[in-house]
Amino acid sequence: MIQPVRISAINETNFWLGVMVVLWGLSWPAMKIAVGLMDPLWMATLRFATAGFCLFLFLGWRRELKLPKHGDWAILASIGGLQMMAFTALGVTAMQHTDASHAALLAYTTPLWGLLAGWLLFGDRPTSTQLIALCVGLCGIGLICSPLEMDWNRPGAVLGAAMLLLAVGWALVILHVKRHHWVSRPIDLAPWQMLFATVSLTVMSLAIVGLPHVKSWTPELWGLLLFIGPIATSLCFVISAEYGRRVSTFMMSNVTLGVPVIGVLASAVFLHEHITALLAVGLALIVGSVIFATWAGGRARKSIEEG
Questions:
Q1: What is the pLDDT of residues 230-282, one digit of tens each?
Q2: Which residues contact 104 (CB under 8 A, 6 or more apart)?
Q3: In this structure, which long-range contacts are made by residues 63-67, counting pairs with CB atoms below 8 Å and at least 24 apart in sequence?
C-alpha cells in the first residue's frame, strides 16, 4: 500500500520559493508585452498601486496592518523610492529599447554592484575571491552589452542598456537594509513602501507623459496587469517575507538567481527572443560570479565570527 507523502517544512519552503522565482522570472516578458500596450510609467504605477492595495487587504485581514514607526521612515523612503520607484521606472522605460532577456539579466547584476558600492562607500573591502567573482561578472556584463551581442545601431539600444545598469543603483538599498535597525517587520512596511512608490510614479507619469494613454483595454492587458501587480509583486513579496527568512542569506541569494534564468527562457518561449551563444555565456558568467561572491562573503563572515 502506498503511503501518502507528507510535505516537510523544508519541502514547503523550497516549493514556495520556487514559485516565487518562476513568477518573478515570468514577470519580465509580461512587462515587455505590457509596455507595448500602454505607457511604461503608467504601467509601473498600476503595478505598485494594485500590489500595494492587495498587501493592505492582506495585512488588514490578518489584523496586522500598522502605521510605519518613526525609526523606519528612512528605509521606507529608500526601498519605496529607489528599489521600487526608480528601479521600475528605469527598467520598464529601458524595455522599450531592449529585449526582455537582456533586461532581466542586467537587472540581476545588483549583488555585484552592491559589493562594489560597499567597498567604495563604506570600506567593506572584498576578499580576493570576491574580487575575482566581481571581475568575472563584469566580463559577463561587458559581453552582453558589447556590439558582438547587442545591435548598437538599433535606435535606443545603448540607452536602454545604460538605463538598466543605472537602475541597479538600488544596490545602495541593499547596503541600507543591512545597516538599518528595523523597528517593524519588512512585510509591515511593504504596503506603505508601495504606496510611496505609487504616489511618486503618479507624479512622475503626469509630469512626463500626462494622462495615461492605453491603446485598448483588452482582456490581454487586464490579465498582464493582474499578473504583474497582485501576483508577481504582491504575492511574491509575501512569499519572500514568509519563507525567505527560513533559509540562509546564501541560499536566498542563489535562489533568486533563478529569476534571470527563467526570464531569459520565458522571453525565448513567449517573445521568440533568440538565445545566442554570447548571451548564454554572459548569463553563465554573471550567475556564476554572484554565486561565487555570495559564497566567499559567507565564508569570510564565518571566519570572523569563529575568530
A1: 999 999 988 888 887 777 666 666 677 788 889 999 999 999 988 888 888 88
A2: 25, 28, 259, 260, 263, 264, 267
A3: 64/188, 65/191, 66/184, 66/188
Cell numbers found for residue 283: 548569463
In which band, very low, low, confident or very high, does the pLDDT at 305 lie, cut at 50, 70 and 90? low
Q: Tell the residue number behind the cell numbers 552592491, with chain if given.
A: 114
Instruction: Report the 10 Å Cβ neighbour count for 100.
Output: 24
- Spatial separation of the C-alpha atoms in residues 232 and 225, rounded to whole Å: 10
Give the tens place of pLDDT for each residue, 178-196.
Answer: 788 888 888 999 999 999 9
Show Cβ contacts of residue 69 under 8 Å, excluding neighbours closer than 6 positions. 183, 184
Owner of C-alpha cell 561587458: 142
Task: Show the cell assigned to 27.
Answer: 514577470
